[in-house]
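Lab notes, practical 5.
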Amino acid sequence: KKSNMGISRDTRHKRRATGGRMPIHKKKRKYEMGRQAAMTKIGAKKISMIRGRGANWKHRALKLDSGNFTWQSETRAFKAKIIDTVYNATNNEYTRTKTLVKNAIVQIDATPFRQWYQQYYGVDLSKKHESQKKRSGHVMANCRSRCKNRMIDEKV
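Output from the prediction step:
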């Protein structure tokens, strides 16, 4: 007998709410098909194309080296390079193998964020003091007014 094993998203194999068994009255369907996880790793960008229903295409990332990250307290988002996977609540093995999944905590290159902070507030985060770059009086006044409400986390 031929085996029809595979990843399926159906509910026919489950039991009823009362605990009784459900009779299987139809075969597997294409629209119930599931696929293996992408297991995206850190590396040079490599994306495979997968055909979906309705002749649509999905982009499955196999390797990524950058992503879009936000600095929530400053409400700014920039594309930044991913350096390492620091922690993953899903599975400790994902941290060891540097697998990228949703909610993984990663270490990134902070250069775009540091450059924006330098330009907006006039404060260089790497040196911890205000820079003495030549600027107009109007720009300096703007930076001083922004610095009044400035709060930076100790961990940054």
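Observations recorded by the TA: Helices lie at 92-96, 111-121, 137-148. The mean pLDDT is 87.
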